[in-house]
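Dear Dr. H.,

I hope your travels went smoothly. While you were away I took the liberty of generating a structure for the chain from your last submission, since the lab meeting agenda had it listed for discussion. I wanted you to have the full record in hand beforehand rather than looking at slides cold. The sequence, exactly as received, is reproduced here:
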Amino acid sequence: MLVYEGIKQGFINDVLTDNITRKIHEKYQKFFGRSGEAQIKSWKNSMEYMYKVLNDNEIPDDSGVAIEFNIPSTSKRVDFMLSGYDKNNKDSVIIIELKQWDTCARVEGRDGLVKTFVGGGFREVTHPSYQAWSYASLIMDFNESVQKELINLYPCAYLHNYKITPTDALVDEMYKEYIDDAPLFGMGDVLKLREFIKKYITYGDNKELLYKIENGKIRPSRRLQDSLKNMLNGNKEFVMIDEQKVVYETALDLANKSYNDKKKRVLVVNGGPGTGKSVLAINLLVELTNKNMVTNYITKNAAPRNVFYDRLKGNFKASYIKNLFKGSGMYVDSEKNIFDALIVDEAHRLNAKSGMFKNKGENQIKEIIHASKFSVFFLDENQKVTLSDIGSLDVIEKYAKQLDAEIQVVELESQFRCNGSDGYLNWLDNVLDIRETANYNFDFDYDFKVLDDPNELKELISEKNDVNNKSRMVAGYCWNWISNAKNNSEIHDVVIPEHNFGMSWNLANSSTWAIDSDSIKEIGCIHTCQGLEFDYVGVIIGEDIRYENGQIVTDFTKRAGTDKSLFGIKAMYNRNPEEALKVSDKIIKNTYKTLMTRGMKGCYVYCVDKNLQNYLKEKLNNL
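The corresponding predicted structure, in token form, is as follows:
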């Protein structure tokens, strides 16, 4: 999706007539919602500099111009693109990352990072050349037109307010490989940037290449469970961008320091669904293991570990795999600092006690910090889905202090699931009454449908699954798991009589429901899909969440008796009804948001409560 597109001459005219900022702003508002005053000023400033650069007769008037191009399957946008053909008539697209910076410092020990004044303070960010290169790499990865038609991408960065000197931090030797890949231009470099453009664009294309990129077929996003083997073999499967790169380099640096000086350090990474937490966790596992650090990847939920094991068996020894991937209750009796690094994914799912009967140890967070020199917790407190989930920033901070560990907290914001649609996530928060949000619009890039019949939902997901076995049905846990149906998909647990619909919960004899070829015949729940992702997900919303008297209501009494997520809520209700309703309301809403964000490309929904179904349709139609 392009916020602004045209040809060079049209862009020149829009700048000359002072219309360029208005046009960008209007289109931006339509797709992304409000933009701040600082962003509007940056458009005005940067576009006037780009006018200076392009105001050259040797740059074809009919070269394509694009501003704020949304990179497929992400929430990131390219500032400026120019398209055309080189002297040999080869397709060329120049990607320009524009910066308002006027100061910068090196960051020692962290590859590809610099420090500059952004967002009201001095922060570590990716080097502009790294950023431009990583954006070009993402477009190359996701866009089939770029690959099949051999469209050449040439990234660069233009810091028009920044005077680059020969001894400047930005051009330090440590950044050379990134500057070689994406040249850097600063204040006074208009002529140099022009020459860079003219090197690759000799003839105009009347924005034809931009059209091919914008409308080209998008390659399916890589799924972590499919890329795991290559990652453990040392292959780079995922390009880390922006704050992902910052978090990764921060974690490596802290792990190295703790390895050398034996001082405890803790890193907390806050990030919502689809921000790449698990990808970062696996990348860290690979890198730290390659450095001969004794490292574990930890998840409380067994489903991801079982899928990872299945994907890796036959390529690595079983003992090697099981020594890498551990459950969260394995550290009750661990010695102090026995591990160099412990990487905790889905840290919000950690429990206080361990063991089958939850009677071992004191607190899993405390035990993990105790057992490791360096620990990193990937956290999303809005994905707590049971009463026993205790993972939170407050608890991590408490035990870090108690165990004399330095602690640092960082944020992940880039969106890679749900087709990169921040708008969809904001919309979910709004319609499920999790929090009031604005700026949601996802109709252009995420496939969401509300269906009237669960059989239609099943049929649609089955059709999607026929393509590559990467789509699944899931449901809220509002139907009991029939004991004699645990190994027979013909005995139906989830039954909706008015539609003559019935399916079985995922079978007990499979711990790899997410990837098994016959799993499309079964329905998964929160416990079998959290931490995993699919292309499309079909969600049946049970009676535990309804729409009544103009508002969303939740009802823990509609949860199945076989579901242990809310075990103890009735006793809590008897002691403190208000607190019990508050806690169960959050868990139920978190559960459905988690289910509805498992799909990378789309989510289809059926609601048992017809009022809720109509409410979702109305909200969808009002987008």
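Two observations you may find useful: Residues 2-215 form one domain. The chain has three domains: 2-215, 224-412, 418-621.

With kind regards,
E. W.
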